[in-house]
Amino acid sequence: MPGLLLRDGRPWRAGGPADLLIRDGVIARLGPGLDPGDAEVIDLGGRLVLPGLVEAHCHLDKTLYGLPWRPHSAGPALADRIADERRHRTELGLPDPAAVTALLEAMAAAGTTHVRTHTDVYSGVGLTGVEVVRDVAARLAGRITVEQVAFPQSGILANPGTAALLEEAIGLGVSAVGGIDPAGMDRDPVRHLGIVFGLAERHGVRVDLHLHDPGSLGVFELELIIERTRAAGLAGRVTVSHAYALAQADAATQDRLAEALAEAGITITTAAIFDFPVPPVKKLREAGVNVACGHDDIRDLWSPYGSGDLLERAMHLAYRSTFRRDEDIEIALEAVTFGGAGALGLDGYGLTEGAPADLVVVDAETPAHAVVTRPPRDLVLKAGHVVARAFGSHKV
Amino acid sequence: MPGLLLRDGRPWRAGGPADLLIRDGVIARLGPGLDPGDAEVIDLGGRLVLPGLVEAHCHLDKTLYGLPWRPHSAGPALADRIADERRHRTELGLPDPAAVTALLEAMAAAGTTHVRTHTDVYSGVGLTGVEVVRDVAARLAGRITVEQVAFPQSGILANPGTAALLEEAIGLGVSAVGGIDPAGMDRDPVRHLGIVFGLAERHGVRVDLHLHDPGSLGVFELELIIERTRAAGLAGRVTVSHAYALAQADAATQDRLAEALAEAGITITTAAIFDFPVPPVKKLREAGVNVACGHDDIRDLWSPYGSGDLLERAMHLAYRSTFRRDEDIEIALEAVTFGGAGALGLDGYGLTEGAPADLVVVDAETPAHAVVTRPPRDLVLKAGHVVARAFGSHKV
């Protein structure tokens, strides 16, 4: 293949304006004034180049994306939404391969090159979701990489048979095992975490736990997760999603947990949705904790909101964090790029020579400007292949 | 003039699909199957028609909209932002007529037909802002209507001479007098409110007070404002913007205040920005309180965020209010339409025969869908004149 020379870009965190020579799916060279040789040249006109965006937390199997608008039908309580989903998911034919496809295509066009999705696994739905998402993902593999977490939406202990299904899901190729509110939902945090971490240790998969439990209960569970992660030697392989308790804790407790999470190598993933608590991402980053970000629900029975655009998601995170300064807003951009890559364990991620050529080009003056205005994606490459190319103009 | 027939629209809250016949700047007729006569026909293809959007709270005089990206330069505290603005506003040439023009044009193109803006009035800046905004607004009067609030950004008592400037501003045509944290900033809530309401009573202008003061202090000030409004007989002419204390109060206090605000005819305007408290808009509406919404700062020294698009602002309000159901999301849409019209006292506002032909057409299945996806504005009319017309396609 002749390759591609991206002339006159401003790659983020790559030390100044540069050309990028793309060959065999990787960034072969990066620097000023590169010789294109036989490569096709695209003039970026000084545009900003970001590494491919990484969606660290969503639920593809639930989405109704691209289908006609469906007014939200659940009552106000969590139990209402769980019951509503159980009632309607069959009638709606979920997971819907067409909707999953439409959403992944929208994500790819918006510059997302990697996705972690939590797929429901519980008695009643079994492993259908894992298979549907796997098959759709296989068809789109050239445009976007999908990794699944086997997610016990209805609990593990509370839903007998789920532990065995999680293990079967690992056999089907999911790369992480999930969990949910070990105390609040499953009523036995130690046993719940024992099952999840046991699967991770036996099968070498990663861990990504939903933790909505609030206040001191959630703090206690974070402590248990930290202890378990250390004991199992799983640094860099465990994520806690949402972690509302971390947002609610007093400053001293946040400081203590941030240090312990950093030392244990645990990622915190936030979605910054609705009015829900957002962990103190700046404090976490300053303590050395990896922070990732994702949409959570997108146009499904749980939430009518969500677009799949991770720059928009970064805006929500920056906004809810009251980030005004460029260097702060970049923390949110980092969460949808390097932070997600850390959570997923992507090798060689970033805009460096030898890295996979996963990148997105936008017309923005600074990275913070890109988060604030979310400009169109002028060029998206996945492993060197053009996923979206719309050189045009749009600037606010 | 031959007029315009909008064929096959779905006007919001107008009882079903209808045509709209626009003549002499008003909606002359509304109903199915209208005879166009000599009017130009635009086929809306079943699109949703909303009344013109009403921006109820912004600061046009501060904006840097359309200028090159300027990283936020203030420190984290409120005092830092006030000092930063004082330091940089002269060097930046604020208010900047070009930036004000660019923002108003963007607002108009996004379907906003009326704007209330708070213009700084204090010793040092005098009435320059009022004059600049007035002159720009006059040039754009065919596209968007601007009304100014004379806003004592640095306090009234704390900034000697401001009371006289507020009165002078009224002479220059501002339609409302503002205030700011009568206790927290000016240290004497009764005197502060005495000056503001005194001006309103003497000159027949409206009142729109910034109230950020938190907790029981803010609740006390709301009580004072309610008492003052009743005593002056200013029902329907007083707005409290932000009202964080109302968001922070316990449910019983919220209930009591909601009832009193409704009875006094006071509007609550919220911006739902950053992580700042959002008043309980559903509870307020259920109690009969008029609720409006605006952007607050847009791309200025206070905030790098903001687009001028009120559907986006409605999304933020709905999102922060954790509105999922269509009927709840419509509360946010109501705030940027009818609620704003109530705050500004717009006569005959709405999609009814005889009303000014201020409207915006979008491709959305329901009003809530429009808030969630914020589709392009396919047609915008201001007093019957075409402000924006981009019949094209975009649908998520």
UniProtKB/TrEMBL annotation, chains A, B:
One Pfam family, short name: Amidohydro_3
Query: What CDD domains does this protein's entry cite?
Result: Bact_CD
- Please give the InterPro entries that the UniProt record associates with this protein: Amidohydro_3 (IPR013108), Metal-dep_hydrolase_composite (IPR011059), Metal_Hydrolase (IPR032466), Metallo-hydrolase_Enzymes (IPR052349)
An example molecular function term from Gene Ontology annotations: hydrolase activity, acting on carbon-nitrogen (but not peptide) bonds, in cyclic amidines
User: What are the Amidohydrolase domain coordinates in residue numbering?
Assistant: 99-387
- Per its record, how is this protein called by name? Cytosine deaminase
Source organism (scientific name): Amycolatopsis vastitatis
